[in-house]
Amino acid sequence: MTEEVLEKYELVVGLEIHAQLQTKTKIFSSDSASFGAEPNRNTSIVSLGLPGTLPRINKTVVAYAVKMGMATHCTINRENRFDRKNYFYADLPKGYQITQDEAPICVNGNVRITLKDKSHRVIRINRIHMEEDAGKSMHDKDDQYSLIDLNRAGVPLIEIVSEPDIRSAEEAAAYFTEVRKLVRYLGICDGNMEEGSMRCDANISVRLKGESAFGQRCEVKNLNSVRNLQRAISYEFRRQVELIENGGVVEQNTLNFDAANGTTSVLRSKEMAFDYRYFPEPDLPPLHLAEEWIEALKSELPELPEQRIHRYIYELGLPEYDAYIITEEKSTSDYFEQLVKLTPHYKAAANWIIGPVQSDLNEGEKTSLLLKCSPCNWRRSLP
């Protein structure tokens, strides 16, 4: 497929990002939500879905969802409710998932991203909703059986659903990275993709440039790194263009991405798509969020990356590049905050962070030790 042919088409992508919330207990029970316990230890009759058990909402989950909505400029729905999403998986104990469908907690937000050429784009957010996670199936631990670990069943999630505003793999990576940065600054999710704390599904389609109608989309499930997100999008773009150019039709399939060879394959076809049969969750009343509670949560919001970048540039006089580098990781930015209390030489402090300190951090082992050290220990290195 030549670049000339690819240039005729426009990529259209929307992302669904699942962020696992850092609460002590699960969303509808008092079971521990901690990661790393022995299989099936963090369970009870509620998370196992036994008959007669009833869910009870974890208030911290609601607070975290509201804070994420505020950080992404969403409208917070004061009246929202839960629904049942009906499907069968072996690791879904109740045979349905409690989620939010028609009345999510947050709608109509946006995230501003910065690209490598320093240009900016705004990606709209359709909705943020709360839901419970499923358990985990393991198919490679035994030659004859699949094993089920239900520790994760009922762990709270928020799903951040973007509009189809993304037009390149680079934009997708920048958007995902910005969302991960926000949840870390808010302290609601650790953003650890390796442990499954954040997962991403990408809805991908193509259309001829200049057309307004969207093409038929395919959904690539459970992308577990920013690099694999970019690889999957790039592969799907070329695959769909080649299919159309050869007279074929893109079918609405759910796809799996094979990280080993960088290709996608059909997980479920359109004919096998689920009919989720959503209906209002009968065991949970609608949520009515009091205005004074919303205002109290707003007062708890930390300074977010975009606000820090603005302050570093316009109050501390840092170059835009320095401000973005320092705020990439909250721990680094927090360390810089301590550092500039000890010196008026802000640019020198930034140079030291971006140079020697960042070099040490890149070695890996020193990261937690270095950023927990008091800047007083490094004061003699500054002007």
Summed up, what is this model?
Helices cover 30% and strands 24% of the residues.
List the topology elements:
Blueprint: H1 3-6, E1 9-20, H2 59-71, E2 75-76, E3 79-80, E4 83-86, E5 96-99, E6 106-114, E7 120-132, E8 136-138, E9 147-149, E10 156-162, H3 169-186, E11 198-208, E12 218-223, H4 226-245, E13 254-258, E14 263-268, E15 279-280, E16 287-288, H5 291-300, H6 305-314, H7 320-327, H8 330-339, H9 346-362, H10 367-372
Parallel strand pairs: 12-13
Antiparallel strand pairs: 1-10, 1-11, 2-6, 3-16, 4-5, 4-15, 6-7, 7-10, 8-9, 11-12, 13-14
Structural features:
single chain, 16 strands, 24% strand, 9-stranded mixed beta sheet, 10 helices, alpha+beta, 3-stranded antiparallel beta sheet
Task: Explain what the structure shows.
- This protein is an alpha+beta fold and 383 residues long.
- It has helices spanning 3-6, 59-71, 169-186, 226-245, 291-300, 305-314, 320-327, 330-339, 346-362, 367-372; strands at residues 9-20, 75-76, 79-80, 83-86, 96-99, 106-114, 120-132, 136-138, 147-149, 156-162, 198-208, 218-223, 254-258, 263-268, 279-280, 287-288.
- The strands form four sheets. It has a nine-stranded mixed sheet. It has a three-stranded antiparallel sheet with strand order 5-4-15, with no helix packed on it. A two-stranded antiparallel ribbon has the order 3-16.
- Helix 3 (169-186) packs antiparallel against helix 4 and helix 6 packs antiparallel against helix 7.
